[in-house]
Known about the structure:
Low-confidence stretches: 1-8
Radius of gyration: 23 Å
Number of helices: 16
Distance between the termini: 10 Å
Shape: globular
Largest sheet: 10 strands, mixed
Structural class: alpha/beta
Bound molecules: GDP-alpha-D-glucose
Amino acid sequence: MPTVTNAAGAGQHDFVVVASRLPVDRVEDPDGEAGWRPSPGGLVTALEPVLREADGVWIGWSGDAGPAPGAFEANGLDLVGVGLSAEQVRDYYEGFCNTTLWPLYHDVISAPQFERRWWEAYVAVNRSFAAAAAAAAAPGATVWVHDYQLQLVPRMLREQRADVRIGFFNHIPFPGYEIFAQLPWRRQVVEGLLGADLLGFQRRADATNFLRACRRAAGLLTKGNTIRVRDADGVREVQAAAFPISIDSAALEAIARRDEVRKRAADIRLALGRPDTLLLGIDRLDYTKGILHRLTAYRELLDEGRLGPHVVLVQVASPSRERVEAYRTLRDEVELIVSRINGEHAEVGSPLVHYLHQSYPREEMAALYLAADVMLVTPLRDGMNLVAKEYVACRYDERGALVLSEFTGAADELTSAFLVNPHDINGLKDAIVRAATVSPAEARRRMRSMRRQVREHDVAHWAATFLDALKQAPG
Ligand code: GDG
């Protein structure tokens, strides 16, 4: 039995979620009074029932520089805010997380930068999160740590609290060893993660890449999904496996079925001048999402006159990481090609690309999904891609077609999509044309099969499967 090494300082929560961000945003009312507004995402929807049932707490950062907000309650959930100084936001968040790890783990689509100062900030911030988790967890609690921003937390936490059960889930890809090996701190990252009892990845390939990194970067023995780790308490066995994340399919479908959302979908098509075909892209404005490849394919199809008379593209690119240079450059490149397409092909009053650098409420997203004939999801690398699953969940009418990059986790599951290699612009163009001209019968067959997958494997199923495996992990 594991020992309670810190029972005196143990907290009171039997279930602790540790994620880079809190599930709320700080807001100010007109009188300058600060408060918190829920920022609903898939993760909080999935974990809310578990949090309520197990007297849980969510530890995260508010998104603003400043002192730690500490423990508070919002929307009936217990939350603990970790504080980041302005320097930590720069070095840890914008630096190590978004300019080192993000591009490295996405197959170096953009060149990662390795700065020793950023690594030191990463260690310090991970230590703050681990301390907050150690203080909140009751003896024998379950702690679930999320994502690449917090890879050192499992080991730091285990060193303080050998009694707790620790799970870790990586939302983004885990790269092949030849790429991971570039990281000057590769051994520390592997050892940090191995403080967990169970490590979850989006795809089998990510888990395999991690197992290889354990052998190569840390010289450990692995057998199947199991890694043998020797630490202060002797030999432990850690499991690494795939747990593909999903969405709250039923809730999203219910939004799409609302009268006002269906009306809005019809109004969107009207506002676009009743196109014969409506193509749609929805992404955070991120260089992993293949937005430029998609726009290039669309532009060439227009140049060649292969798309029929009235085919319109709506591209929502929600603002993201705007202080990071690679994101500013991408925005310029996207806006240049959008204006070239419109400059060369549009007529007065009817642009061919409707580019929206804004964020929308979920109802508007559902209306867009419902209005679109062809959904374009073309990342160069993506852990899962929830947008693809959201499109499928909204299409209760069994219409519409999905063009989906092979390099997303979703492609392992949504095999009835029109699968593409986004680097192959000719192949991408052919897939767009096929999706735009597919017969209604074939479109229905494909959509039905994808909908079955998304309905049966929703986010609640994902969380339950992971937490069940964590309970059973050898530890
Ligand atoms: C990471 C991994 C993995 C986007 N714009 C708006 C908006 N969104 C929502 C989408 C979707 C979510 O954001 C984006 O999720 P993705 O999965 O597509 O991508 P990442 O943000 O890169 O997420 C990814 C995910 O973690 C989960 O593990 O799938 O691979 O990179 O839900 O709908 N939502 C609203 N307005 C917008 O303007 N309301």
